[in-house]
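Class, look over these C-alpha cells:
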Amino acid sequence: MSALAKQINPFNLISALDDEYSNKQVALKDVSREAVGISIVQLNVANTSFAVEVGVAVETLLYKKPQALPRSHAWALGVIEVRGEVVPVIDFAILNKQAASIIDKNSRLMIIRHEQLVFGLVVSNVSAVSYVPEIHEGGPSELNEFGWSKTTTNKWVELHGKKTHFLDFKDLINQTNFLTLTY
C-alpha cells in the first residue's frame, strides 16, 4: 500500500463531503428564500422611510409642478399629465400628519398604480429594489383626524436590519378620504 493511500481516511473524506454538501444546501435555501420574497423599493418622505411593493410602484419621475386643483385637500397638490394620463400628485407627508415635503431639485414623483387607481407621491429618495421574506403586522395605533394611523398602516418589513413601514395600498384605498381629492 502506498504512503498516500495510508494518509487518506475514507471516513474523514465522507465527513468533509457531507459538511460541504450541508453548507451548500443551507446557502441554496437562503437564495431560494430571497428569490420567493417580496420585491420592494424603499422611499423617503419627509425623513421617514417607507417600503412599497415593486408591482405597485411602477416608475419614478423627476418632480414637476402639478396643476393645482381648487378646493382640494392640503395633501392633494394637483395633477400632472404622464403620457396622456391625468395623474393626481399627493404629498404623503402632509397626508401622514408630518411636516410638508421639502421640494427641491432632488425630489421625485413615485408613480403608484393599484388596480384602477393611479397617483404620484412626492418623495425625496428612492432605493434600488430589495427582497424581503415577509411583511409583518403590528405597529402604532394612534389615529390622526382622517382616522388613519400616523403611519397609515400597521404593517412593516425588516430592511437592512431596521423596521420600515410598509405602505399597503389595498388598505389605503379602503380609506374614503384617500380617494377624495376635492371637497
In short: Confidence is low (pLDDT under 50) at residues 140-149. The first strand starts at residue 38 and ends at 45. The radius of gyration is 24 Å. The chain has two domains: 3-34, 38-179.
